[in-house]
């Protein structure tokens, strides 16, 4: 993997670089948010590990700037000492794809990064999914609703693809968690934060809501909330 690590804590950065370097991965390192953003904008990486609290520019701002500049395919894992749901939601809405709380295991970080890179790979078969006025091209990974471009990160794109492929039926939380993390689902309600970000992206600006929560069970994508 080609990894960009944006982290100002020297010991953490050294440990990450040593661990992944020993496995044959290439790790570029920036200790400042502005420098990290410049590297991310001008170089190609498979995944970005981004600290939340950084000198020069904080991680949320780096993430937002990177996504708004059109760098939507590279997955971003955010590192932070904050573990409140509101902080996680803010990170996902800024464009992060995963969240890891400090202190963390390097083995878990490795597994998370590999999963992000794997899921970010575009599918081989061109296909356009349609539910109501929502369209999602699995070849280009572009989504639009009523002709309006929808901004998604790799994780919310994956969730949307699953829901659209099973439009009209309830997709359980267990199914979605397995699709995202396999048998290594992280502790905490990360799925809820991803679903909040997806709902904001596809429903916030539209009167007809497509994403419906089936409390205690899962989620359903349909233009008709009464339809089974």
In short:
Helix content is 40%, strand content 21%. The protein has 228 residues and is an alpha/beta fold. The strands form three sheets. A five-stranded parallel β-sheet has the order 2-1-3-4-5, sandwiched between helices. Strands 6-7-8-9 form a four-stranded antiparallel β-sheet, with helices on one face.
CATH topology of the largest domain: Rossmann fold
Spatial gap, N to C terminus: 43 Å
Shape: globular
| Structural class label | alpha/beta
Describe this structure in words.
- With 228 residues, the chain is α/β, with parallel strands linked by helices.
- It folds into two domains: 119 residues, Rossmann fold, CATH 3.40.50; 94 residues, Winged helix-like DNA-binding domain superfamily/Winged helix DNA-binding domain (Arc Repressor Mutant, subunit A).
- It is built from eight helices and twelve strands.
- β4, α4 and β5 form a beta-alpha-beta unit.
- The longest helix is centred in the middle third of the chain and has 15 residues.
- The radius of gyration is 18 Å and the shape is globular.
- It starts with a strand and ends in a 7-residue tail after the last strand.
SSE diagram, text form:
Layout: E1 2-6, H1 10-21, E2 26-30, H2 33-42, E3 47-51, H3 59-68, E4 76-80, H4 85-94, E5 98-101, H5 106-120, E6 128-131, E7 134-137, E8 142-145, E9 148-150, H6 154-165, E10 171-172, H7 173-181, H8 190-203, E11 211-214, E12 218-221
Parallel strand pairs: 1-2, 1-3, 3-4, 4-5
Antiparallel strand pairs: 6-7, 7-8, 8-9, 10-12, 11-12
Helix pairs in contact: 2-3, 4-8, 6-8
């Amino acid at each position: 993997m080609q990894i960009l690590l944006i982290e100002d804590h020297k010991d953490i950065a050294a440990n990450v670089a040593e661990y992944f370097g020993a496995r044959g991965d290439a790790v570029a390192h920036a200790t400042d948010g502005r420098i990290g953003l410049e590297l991310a904008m001008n170089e190609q990486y498979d995944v970005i590990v981004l600290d939340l609290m950084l000198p020069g520019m904080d991680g949320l701002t780096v993430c937002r700037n990177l996504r708004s500049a059109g760098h939507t395919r590279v997955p971003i894992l955010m590192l932070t000492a904050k573990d409140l749901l509101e902080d996680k939601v803010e990170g996902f809405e800024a464009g992060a794809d995963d969240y890891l709380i400090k202190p963390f295991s390097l083995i878990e970080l490795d597994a998370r990064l590999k999963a992000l890179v794997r899921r970010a790979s575009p599918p081989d078969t061109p296909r356009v999914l349609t539910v109501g006025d929502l369209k999602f091209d699995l070849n280009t990974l572009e989504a639009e609703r009523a002709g309006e471009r929808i901004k998604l990160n790799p994780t919310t794109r994956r969730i949307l693809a699953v829901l659209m492929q099973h439009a009209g039926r309830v997709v359980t939380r267990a199914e979605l968690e397995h699709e995202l993390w396999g048998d290594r689902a992280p502790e905490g309600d990360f799925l809820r934060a991803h679903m909040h970000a997806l709902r904001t992206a596809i429903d916030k600006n539209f009167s007809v809501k497509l994403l419906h929560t089936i409390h205690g069970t899962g989620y359903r994508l349909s233009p008709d909330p009464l339809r089974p």
